[in-house]
Amino acid sequence: MPKMETFQDLSLHPSTNQKELWRWLYTELRAAILDGRLRAGTRLPSTRSLAVQYELSRGTVITAFDQLQAEGYIRTEVGSGTYVATGLPDGPLPTSRSKPAPALPQSTATLSKRAQAQLKDVVVMPAPHSVGKAFRAYEPAIDLFPADLWARTAARVLRRAPRSLYGHGSAGGYQPLRRAIAEYVGSSRGVRCTPEQIIVTSGAQQALDLLGRFLLDPGDSVWMEDPGYPGAWQTLRAAGARIIPVPVDQDGLNVAAARKLSPRAKMAYVTPANQFPLGVTMSADRRIELLQWAAEAGAWIVEDEYDAEYRYFGRPVAALQSLDRSGAVIYVGTFTKMLFNALRLGFLVLPLRLVGAFEAARTLVDRHPPTLDQAILSEFITEGHFGHHVRKMRQIYAERMAVLKEAADEHLGGLLDVTNAAAGMKTVAWLKTGTSDKAAAAQARRLGLEMIELSEFSIKQPLKPGLLLGFAGCNPDELRRGVSVLAAALRNPPALR
Ligand SMILES: Cc1ncc(COP(=O)(O)O)c(C=O)c1O
Known about the structure:
- By secondary structure, this protein is of the alpha/beta class.
- It contains 15 helices and 14 strands.
- It folds into 3 domains: 21-84, Winged helix-like DNA-binding domain superfamily/Winged helix DNA-binding domain (Arc Repressor Mutant, subunit A, Orthogonal Bundle), CATH 1.10.10.10; 147-385, Aspartate Aminotransferase, domain 2 (3-Layer(aba) Sandwich), CATH 3.40.640; 388-496, Aspartate Aminotransferase, domain 1.
- Pyridoxal-5'-phosphate (PLP) is lined by residues 138, 203-205, 229, 231, 271, 276, 304, 306, 334, 336-337, 346.
């Protein structure tokens, strides 16, 4: 039988804390057994010699052995010694110490045909390792988020939370949060609703998913702004919708063109306050035209206002929902951009006739949103912190936009024409005609910038070459640095053809 008198293979123990020491020894020995460094039948050193060798108390070693024995990794024979158990598989088992299993080839081939079609060109966004990188497009100023205030609010809410909040929550969301949202969208966006019309969701994305699943049948046509938001068209397409790309001009979605393309569409998806990605505001005439069409066609209008709070100049325009008299508009809002991405809380404002059905539908999806997070957000809003943060960010983002514009005018003149965004957290920058925006963005990424080319957002309509530059999440120094790196990227002509 193999014998182990001394064992040199353990990593150094991390501390002198007795509790951590036995766990360290237990974990090390277990890993050595599982990955085959200690084979079945091997005799372990005595507790006394292990204690001496690793400068542990004997009690620590005995506690680790007891645990390993209780879990069946080792057995003790009285008068003979302690051995690695023989019932374990012979070869190495995967453990955190052994090499990770090779990644499966990236393939959706084993999924259902439906899923394969749904996942066509869906890109998984990696979790970033840092905040504030130029020119990340989907991030608010996380560096300036009042995390201490959030933590204090959370502590207070959790301390006082009645036990009932730990039970099953309500399908539409936590009632005080629904009230707070109804009040906020009413006063700041002119949305007309009662708290019952609010359905709290996991960000705008889940709101869009619910709308696709429960309002569309396979083959239903949906007008989609082109260029537009992939998160919307991919989700609605996954629900079986036939996406009808509709051109966008300086007044927003071209309703006359859409009527010609598909007069009897079931839904229109629009971003009227700040068109994604071009940043135009839908004109009053277009809003009326769109509402008229929806009333005639019995269609839904999905109004996505993910960053409408941030308007820097020009006339603030109330939500399209505020003009709706026929109950066609479904409003989608999100806190992920107004507060921070990881919050994953957003909401739908539904026409009353849909509320009951959506509460039932929610039961099939995730039952209800997490109650305690909602309670914290609700308190954050009602205490006035949310309003204060948004007002502060509006000013900071305007300043950041100005820094970007100034730096771009100075260093990128003739290469890139950066639009002075009237609203939102990102802006469009136009490249010279004939440039490939894909190549330009790839070159910028190679030099370490985060960059998305405009053509990524085109469904079908040809688009002038351009880049999408996020500015809200980057501090002024990072923006200036980003501009000079971008200038270097764009001056590298071979990559741009
Ligand atoms: C048009 C549009 N809608 C919604 C969102 C937000 O989605 P979520 O709340 O799922 O993060 C984004 C993200 O940037 C967006 O660009």
